[in-house]
């Protein structure tokens, strides 16, 4: 069967001697940058066994650059049908990968207001930067709407490059640089009055002038003073009884506790969780 190609007019890629002068389309580099952040990669390729991600667990990882380079190579190999095209692709793979690596900030940073980014951080990233992150499978993903995540390495903040819910209970985050601590926060607007736990415990805050809102500790210790909020069977708070309990804990006259002081005690701030790589995964701060 005769080939449809014309031997006289066929363009041979091997004839292009300086392939480094050929520009790589920006759209292609950006798409490959998202691919390096494991976008569009099936979860089964990243987590081979579901039992590796049990419920209420967090798993840290570091992205292998050789794996992502092979991923880029596979993506750019689509359509290669001749030896010349294969040689051209292999020769340009390092340049394509480096250009794609420089584009990893664009998907997230380009959508952010400049005030929300660290100052003087360009959209072009360091092609040698390490990528790390975590998977978290937990009810926190669905229960904490608008969860805020921050990553740190030896107290230095790391920029988030990708943060995405893969399902109602599965979250993936990828940071630029290595991380050893992850902190998660409820949205700051999630303030309410009352208690969080079923035990109805609340920590007492100081109300004396100059120390308003500071935690109240037991004398000579670092243990916070707390009490159980008295409630009716339907959950309604017994305000008068609570007022007397607060006055006793604060060692003040109950008549001096007015609405502002009571509101200060009942205010429940946004919760915070802290996870340490290689440390105690139950290091919660709520």
Write a concise keyword list for the protein shown above.
alpha+beta; two-stranded antiparallel ribbon; 26% helix; 21% strand; 12 strands; eight-stranded antiparallel beta sheet; elongated; 286 residues
Overview of this structure, please?
By secondary structure, the chain is of the alpha+beta class. Helix content is 26%, strand content 21%. The chain contains eight helices and twelve strands. The chain has helices at 26-36, 43-46, 65-76, 83-102, 106-109, 140-143, 239-250, 259-266, and strands at residues 57-62, 131-137, 148-153, 156-167, 170-176, 181-185, 192-193, 201-203, 226-228, 267-268, 272-276, 284-285. It has an eight-stranded antiparallel β-sheet with strand order 1-2-5-4-3-6-11-12. Strands 7-10 form a two-stranded antiparallel ribbon. A two-stranded antiparallel sheet has the order 8-9. A hairpin with a 7-residue loop joins strand 11 (272-276) and strand 12. Helix 1 crosses helix 4 (83-102) and helix 3 packs across helix 4 (83-102). It is elongated. The relative contact order is 0.11. The model is unreliable at 8-19 and 280-286 (pLDDT under 50).
